[in-house]
Task: structure prediction
Amino acid sequence: MIKKLRIKLVAASMLSLFLVLAVIMGVVNFLNYRQIRTAADSTLAILQENGGVFPRPELFFDPGRHDGRQPSPELPYESRYFSALLSAEGDVVSVDTGRIAAVDADRAAEMARRVWQDGAQRGFVRDYRFVRYEEEGQTRIIFLDCGRDLSTFRTFLILSCGISALGLLAVFGLILLLSRRIIRPVSESYEKQKRFITDAGHEMKTPVTIIDADVEVLEMELGENEWLRDIQAQTRRLADLTNDLVLLSRMEEDRPLPARIALPFSDLVYETAQSFQGPATAQGKTLTLRIQPMLSVCGDEKTLRQLVSILLDNALKYSSEKGFITVELAPQRPAKSLCLTVENTVDAMAPEDLQRLFDRFYRADKSRNSQVGGYGLGLSIAKAIVEAHQGKIQATLPGPNLLRMKVSFPLTDAGGQN
Result:
């Protein structure tokens, strides 16, 4: 549990940092790109107003203009551009490449025809920003070379991404080192809690055993009566609760299970399920088994039997009156896993209850608690057993009155159909 908590802490921290950096770098680079595009469109607007060329210096620069839109007087000498005039049918009438050396007349005509075919009024062709407009029944397309600005933009983008990646790696290392210290109080508290449960469980076993033995002696002397039977019933319940708490505490200690060997899981499930046929029939419920033979899983036999018993006991207790219970065991070939499914009909269950079914002491059907008994620890133990076997367990509602418990285990070499 503590290991998973540390992983979640590191993952949440790194995800938060990644999202923040992604937003910052995205906004910065977007604004940089928009600035390049805005400056290019401003230059193209001047060229468009003057038929594809810059006006004379005395007309271009107005010293009395103070609205913030005053272009630089060096702009005509810094800009590289060319234009093409096309007829209404899209034929190139003329091209002007006098203000650029990297593009000849043929290439200028080819780019103009491409823009004509695309139909866009404004955009980019490679590193050239263009504007298209009507001029005396013909179409003029002006291209402005933005290669230098775009090259700077790309360099900044690559550098910013690289620096952000290095920063993420550095922060990841720091969080990895500090996370152990951050969760140390939680780890110590959790260890103390587990130690207390284990120690208290062992200490409680002795007085419970003594009480049960004394009741048996009293029963021999006084004979049977309802008070002694009630004491015996409550001591058994207390003993069961103590054993469940101790078992759950041990299962969550992240220690490997003893004697993990390849087991005939099909036989194990069938034998365990068969023991529930009698109680199911007595309650008027139908238990159906669909178990594929010759399936194996690597694990501890005792705890796996307990897992199947818990799932079937839970299905039997909380299934609807005259309901149906189905146990299915089959391999999932694409996922290379073994799937154990226990379904049972239910009177009603809210979808939000599914998220808490595996919590300790939680039972969805509060109205039936006194009737069915138990403490709400069964599914918590089942989840711990599954996770100890590197498996997964989930609860779903495939229908309005149907609850499905699905357990997946990795297939062993001996698993599957032979």
Notes: The first helix runs from residue 2 to 49.
